[in-house]
Amino acid sequence: MSTWKRLASYAKYLVIPAALIVITVWLLNTPPGLLGKADGIGYAVCHRIDERSFHIGDRQLPLCARCSGMYLGAMAGIIYQAIFSGRRQKFPPWSISVVLILFVAAFGIDGANSYLYLVKTVYPGALPQIPNIYIPNNALRLFTGSGMGLGLAAILYPAFCQSVWADAEDKPALDWKGFLTVVGITVIVDLLVLTESPIVLYPAAFISAGGVLVLLTMIYTMVWLMLIGQDGVFTRLRQLWLALLAGLTMAFIQILAIDLVRFWLTGTWGAIPMG
After folding, report:
1. Under a CB-based contact definition with an 8 Å cutoff, are residues 70 and 152 in contact?
2. DSSP H helical segments within 14-64, as ranges?
3. Which of 66, 77, 178, 207 has CB 3.0 to 4.6 Å from 141, enough for a Cys bridge?
4. In angstroms, what CA-CA distances link 232 with 161, 164, 275?
5. Hey, CA dihedral for 180, 182, 184, 187, is it positive or negative?
């Protein structure tokens, strides 16, 4: 065993106290209330511009429309695969991958067009040689974000299975039936979000913020298992608790670090100041 892996194996005994310390520090340094804590998560990954977000009354959601869509889509994809795909470790077939690439392209085009529109709004007369393709709106941000989220889930879930399970199945985690089903579910969720009903937006706020934690935890769990040389050795979910806790702790370290630096630079839990 390498020196680094040996040190990492000893570090596992510090996971529980580290988790308690990091999460406690984060809880004490973020806005109060459940939505306030969701804001603290969104603050680490999203610009949180008010005009580009959905609202419950006057209360902005923790993530902007694009990020809300992305993490709602990602959660739909992860949950669906966790229930119906089991431990399948292969990525989607090329035909589905082509559609996912188109989703990612739509995300990039709409994001670039939206950012250009923002620059021209904040700085009148800027970049006159680059026209906007169309006027951006939150509905497009939501749908293109959801497409990106589905792409993330389609890649991350089988990668997680590869990294974790000793008995992972050599089958695609998403076939066409599953893919069309999860796309349909995501479209329905997005349409419900567009009603801007508080009955929909409250759970959407927590699910999207929770999606940030879920994705980061999965990624850092894979990193942790590679560091300690235990990737691909598990057969039961209960064996994973320490690795998942390590992944969650690393996710909170990242969120805490970004929160503290951003708040130190801007002095606000709101949007990144422009102009």
Report:
1. yes
2. 15-28, 34-42
3. 66
4. 8, 4, 49
5. negative
Q: Tens of pLDDT along 78-129?
A: 999 999 999 999 999 999 999 999 999 999 999 999 988 888 787 777 777 7
- Among 163, 156, 172, 180, residue whose Cα is nearest residue 86: 172
Q: Which of 259, 212, 209 lies closest to 61 in space, CA to CA?
A: 209
Give the distance, in angstroms, between the CA of residue 37 and the centroid of all CA atoms in the same chain: 16
User: What distance in Å separates the CA atoms of residue 96 and residue 12, rounded to the nearest whole number?
Assistant: 39
Handedness of CA 98, 104, 110, 112 (dihedral sign): negative
* Per-residue pLDDT tens over the stretch 197-237: 999 999 999 999 999 999 999 999 999 999 888 889 999 99
Distance CA 155, CA 4 (A): 28
Q: List Cα–Cα distances, 85 to 45, 160, 168, 216, in angstroms.
A: 29, 12, 11, 21
CB-CB neighbours of 165 under 10 Å? 21
Sorted by where each begins, the domain ranges of the chain are: 3-266
Closest by Cα among 251, 106, 96 to 179: 96
Burial level of 208, CB count in 10 A (0-12/13-18/19+)? buried
* Listed residue (146, 141, 139) closest to 195, CA to CA: 139
Positive or negative CA dihedral for 208, 209, 211, 215?
A: positive
Query: In the chain, count of helices (H) and strands (E)?
Result: 9, 4
- Would you say 112 and 133 are in contact if contact means Cβ atoms under 8 Å apart? no
Tracing tokens 């603290």 back to the chain, one arrives at 40
Instruction: Determine which helix (DSSP H) or strand (DSSP E) holds 94, and give its type and residue range.
Output: helix 94-122
Residue 150, both tokens: 């589905």
